[in-house]
Amino acid sequence: MNKVNLYALDREQLRDLLVKMGEKPFRARQVRDWMYGQRVDKLAAMRNLPDATIDKLAEVAELGELQLAAQQISRDGTIKRVYQLCDGQLIESVLMPYADGRMTACISSQAGCAMGCVFCATGQMGFSRNLTATEIFEQAMVFARELAARGERLSNVVFMGMGEPFHNYEASLAAVRMLMQRLGIGARHITISTVGLAPQIRRFADEGLQVKLAVSLHRSDDAQRSQLLPVNRRWDIAALLDACRYYCARRNRRISFEWAAIAGENDTADEARRLGRLLQGMNCHVNIIPLNPTGGYTGLSADSRNIEAFQATLRSFGLGSTVRVRRGIDIAAGCGQLKTALLLPQARASSTIPAMPNEAISQP
Ligand code: SAH
Ligand code: SF4
User: Fold this and answer.
1) What rounded mean pLDDT belongs to the chain?
2) In this predicted structure, what is the pLDDT of residue 325?
3) Which residue in 76, 102, 108, 151 is deepest, having the highest Cβ count within 10 Å?
4) Are strands 79-84 and 67-73 parallel, antiparallel or unpaired?
5) Strand arrangement of the beta sheet that strand 190-194 belongs to
6) What pLDDT does 354 receive?
7) Is 335 among the residues known to form the active site?
């Protein structure tokens, strides 16, 4: 018999489970406190429960269902993981520690991705399935648990792992609410990154949440953006920016635009000026991420001199930008890269995962 994942149960469902086992309803509050307050990683650690209760619970339930399939730890402290799900699907999560004490989890919302962005390792592997809200939440929960064991807290979560969160809207939003309610992570410390599904951006603006929104723009011309991000054929730049303006007005919040800087493609002076004209006057910020080279795409990362010139042009349009720090430079920490490495025959044959030359994960 499959065991129940306790993280999949809400308050009432947990209480029902315990009552069905012959326990008093107040045990549910105790169990939840151990799960989300103390953040223990095993039932046996729930010390104010009678041993018999723990044994009974352990027969039918388990604390989480993600199976660790591979892990790499970078010299800068970034931890990259591949988890196996119940049906064998593989997903990635990353934990990034920052010098100022922030601990940011980067989590996946889908196994693979249907959006087909040509430079993205996840896009290159295609779509397998949506994750459940619990599968999304549990990735952050596992990091929160490990941090709690050493007296630290998970402070931020970004939906920048595998998949398009707005293509799995309901589950992603349910996971956001779990992060807020169960782990006490404030909406302002959660970022959803989208490739630009305009209707969902509007829907998200109407949710009344103060969660941050990042939009992967990457090009300022429709024909070129469509080549890089096929979704642009469905919602072009004008439709996308209309939705973004709606979000800024409705939420009274700044929006971030992601810009994967690709040498000779989108790092030119012309491109900077066109982007400047597009975004001028908008309440926004541009996050420049030097491209992480991937096996299925020949583009290379823009160099820092071009990026500086690009930023200067944006400044002349009154637009702020930040180059995001490269994290886990020595491990395969780019979106979809470790899973790709894991699936390579030579990676399967050896017990270690081959290192990737580059990675860039943006911070919130
Ligand atoms: N699907 C969402 C969130 C996951 S991807 C989205 O596309 O926004 C998170 C970010 O990583 C996106 O901005 C995406 O464009 C970027 N990204 C993907 N592959 C990359 C690569 N090889 N180099 C740099 N950035 C990349
Ligand atoms: Fe999907 Fe985002 Fe990768 Fe595009 S960049 S393929 S939307 S995960």
Assistant:
1) 91
2) 72
3) 108
4) antiparallel
5) 67-73, 79-84, 90-97, 103-106, 156-159, 190-194, 212-216, 255-261, 284-290, 320-323
6) 29
7) yes
Among 164, 244, 335, 359, the active-site one is 335
Residues of the chain under the 70 pLDDT cut: 326, 328-364
Query: Probe ligand 2: pick from 107, 118, 120, 258, max atoms within 8 Å of CB?
Result: 120
Phi/psi of residue 4, each to 5°?
-80, 135
Other beta carbons less than 10 A from residue 79's beta carbon = 19
Give, for ligand 1, the residue of 118, 130, 258, 326 to mutate: max count of ligand atoms closer than 8 Å to Cβ.
258
Write down the residue that tokens 């890089």 correspond to.
228
Asked if 113 is an active-site residue, the reply is: no
Residue ID of nearest Cα to ligand 1 atom 19: 120
pLDDT, one tens digit per residue, over 295-353 is: 899 999 999 999 999 999 999 999 999 998 767 656 555 556 666 666 554 333 333 33
